[in-house]
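name: query_chain
kind: protein
chains: 1
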Amino acid sequence: NDNTMNIYILFFFIWHLLSFVLCNKPCSREGSRIVRDYFTRALGPIFEKNHIAIPLECAFSPMRDVFYRQELHKLKISNDKWLCKFCNKTFLSEYYLDMHFVNRHNNTLLQVKRFRICF
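structure:
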């Protein structure tokens, strides 16, 4: 049922956001990806239909997403081949590409604390 799934995802988002903000937990790339993808599918068409950008003040703005820049620099070539568009290295899975971002391109995360949000 779509409504049940939406409630679970909303709960997950709220729990994830509160655990990051209140407990000072590190931001989960995987959890952020799930929430980001959901809200992109849910809100994106509404903003596109009205020809407006998601404002920076909105918590769901991609420009506030800690991992947004890195996510833009991923390219899935095939099921077992991912490309880092920062340095053109290829990886066997998205997981290894994520680890590469942590180890080699960590400086590309959003650094402005007053704007950034962890989904």
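note: Strands lie at 74-78, 81-84, 90-91.
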